[in-house]
Amino acid sequence: MPTAGLKTIIALSFVLAIGFLLVILSCALYKVYYPLLVVATYVLAPIPNWIASRCANPDDFVESSGNGVLDLGRFCTGFLVVMGIALPAVLAHSALIGIPAMVMSIIGGLLIYGTIISFGMFFQEEQEF
Amino acid sequence: MEEDRLFKFRRPAWLNSAWARSAGVYSAGALFSLAFYILMDAAVWSGSALNGSDVHVTFVDWLPLIFSSLGMLIINSVEKARLSADSFSYSGSGVAWKARVVLFLGFAALAGGMAGGVTVFVLKFVVPNVGWPMMGMGVENVVANGLVMLSSVVLWVSQNMEDEYSYNLSL
Asked: Residue B75: which residues within 8 A CB-CB, separation 6 or more?
């Protein structure tokens, strides 16, 4: 795990800003504000995983009952990640938003989610003992 | 250990890592999400301006997916260790038999959801000879139920990795 320096923070915030720019642009350019839901989805996506990893102790081999909670969190995270891609596709298929808006909101959403994930990965080191 | 395996075929060795296990659970969630949003797509498309016909997605179209999801929930709630070991516990004797009955109910709900999806597709879309862009709503119903089945298979397999993984580490 590389140590998180100042450059990492700057690069991550830059990518996050580009992601938000793309999503907001996909809304404001066409005056249809449905793709903003993508941001909410990707912000919510890591939360089940975090909650589940607090509830369960994966290093505990004697009591394996905590693994179910962990799996539920992973399942919900997988659900929400695909939801962020599927939501613009559903909207575009029904002609509620245009195809360019769909492409922009999917790319922007993936950038936002990638930022959140890599932020979690880079700064996990400090929380552990 | 060899005779009370749930699988007939041996899994490859790379499947027994923690990485493959969590990837399996993630992809099960992804497949379930795909199934839900494919049916959601049918419903949204049915209500949008693109749908010129008077065929619409109603509650009947959602019912197969509800049954499939219920079956998936039941199947994956059964603890896998209960299926092979017929131990005496506080819930009485014959625990494996009871677990298998519950598992059978789950599989019946899953297969019933799939059959219901095909039934809706045939009765609502094929027999009245609905034109092609409207036919997509019925096809999406069948695909969504198939994806729920696939998702529960993936979840089942990745939950079965758990035992040997923890066994390997505790040695």
From this structure: B103, B106, B107, B110, B152, B156
